[in-house]
Design goal:
Length: 68
């Protein structure tokens, strides 16, 4: 079975997501909707789409941390 490629994110999204996540890790959970609100509080992102991409990447980071 072939592996399906995931969505490719820019380095800006990845670095800003890690910075926001490290700023206050306790505010983020595995819930995407909750993370969208937390990103709004912690960072000033003008674009709704960019905010959603950052929140989605942070959600993946939280899930990866919980696996370890």
């Amino acid at each position: 079975m072939a592996k399906i490629m995931g969505r490719i994110r820019t380095t800006f999204v990845k670095t800003s997501s890690v910075k926001i996540h490290n700023k206050d890790k306790s505010k983020f959970t595995k819930d995407f909707k909750h993370n969208k609100k937390s990103v709004d509080e912690l960072a000033q992102i003008n674009s709704k789409k960019l905010r959603n991409v950052v929140a989605g990447y942070i959600t993946q980071l939280v899930k990866k941390e919980e696996k370890k």
